[in-house]
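Page header: ASSEMBLY MODEL / two components / 224 residues total.
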Amino acid sequence: GQQLNQSPQSMFIQEGEDVSMNCTSSSIFNTWLWYKQEPGEGPVLLIALYKAGELTSNGRLTAQFGITRKDSFLNISASIPSDVGIYFCAGQRGSNYKLTFGKGTLLTVNP
Amino acid sequence: DGGITQSPKYLFRKEGQNVTLSCEQNLNHDAMYWYRQDPGQGLRLIYYSQIVNDFQKGDIAEGYSVSREKKESFPLTVTSAQKNPTAFYLCASCRTGTNYGYTFGSGTRLTVV
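Prediction written out in full:
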């Protein structure tokens, strides 16, 4: 099945640094979602985006729905050790379609 | 509180044995999904079901089987035909016709010994 192109695959940063990751697709999506998975747990929804150009924040997290509908970005400001985990993007073409997932970005934060 | 429960958290299986992973949700969600997660492979879809008594193969269904006899339950059986079953298995659910994303369970780690 199709997967989104998510980058980078992994990041090693110092506490306090900002983080950016993105997902791109050759297809248009009507919904973009960002999940975080902590070690040994299931993914948890962080942010949902429903409109092209939309910019949405959740605390230190900000995500954007690309204008072309083929990409999305997630930024984390002033990272802290508990930000460690795998971040997944997901796109959905319509409400009756399955989600398509990226392969994830593994984030490591050094205190 | 509503949620999705997977059990057990850890499971050990001898080669050649079938094993069943449980997934139960009380969210009144119509659709349920099973994913397999291996390091660096992302989430790969095994099976999914959008209504009771109906299910569809995902991208890696070989060696797995499912049933959907009740809306709340979607058990996954890993059969002896699955060549490399050691992995982390995730169950998810959602309400069909919406775009609110999936709710995931906390996963089951299966190890073949």
